[in-house]
Amino acid sequence: MASIEVDGKSFEVDEEGYLEDLTTWVPEIAGVMAKLDDAELTDAHWEVINFLREYYEEYQIAPAVRVLTKAIGKKLGKDKGNSKYLYELFPYGPGKQACKYAGLPKPTGCV
Amino acid sequence: MSDAKKFMYINRKAPYGTIYAWESLEVVLIGAAFDQEVSLAFVDDGVYQLMKGQDTTEVGIKNFSPTYAALGDYDVNKIYIEKESLEARGLTLDDLQHLVWEDEDEDWAEKDSIRVVTSAELAEIFEQQDITLSF
After folding, report:
1. Which of A22, A55, A59 to mutate to test the interface with B (most CBs of B within 10 A)?
2. What CATH number should be reported for the domain holding residue B65?
């Protein structure tokens, strides 16, 4: 079992780097995961990460990219609800990468 | 889109005794990423899948009932409940979740996704489908 170190604590992740137990998530995990991807988290990233966590809390699934894009557009404005904006923030794929930082499973429908 | 096929997912089983309900929901969510016209039907014990206030803590299974509320986000907004199945179980529409979708073209107006139909009406709807999957 792989794991990552965050502030001296160890968190189990699967072979793709997704957190095994989403209830153990703390915001610092996102920062450490981003560093492993050579990325730096800005407020814009956090908007998406927090949105995903709220979505999961409500619906018990990580949304597909298309759904995420539409929902972000509705909540944060049309200028952010497009795949160009989201892919600039998360070049590995807004669904996959942002969900990973948010401690969620890989989005349902992500193939 | 002209080559979009009409998919009907028929749900007949109670939510937690078997894996069918969750499998069906997952297939629907995955399939919704493609250009298809998706409908869901809930008949027989399948109507229990949409019951309000589900609590699975005693059975140790994830309560996936909140996920049905996400169907609207996936543009799945044709959800048919068979009237006879509801009545045979002493249920009414009020016992089920209120599922809605938001119409982006009408300033995100909320619209009902669920329609209660008779067995005969449902048979006609089934007739119009290109592909039917039964769970």
Report:
1. A59
2. 3.40.1260.10
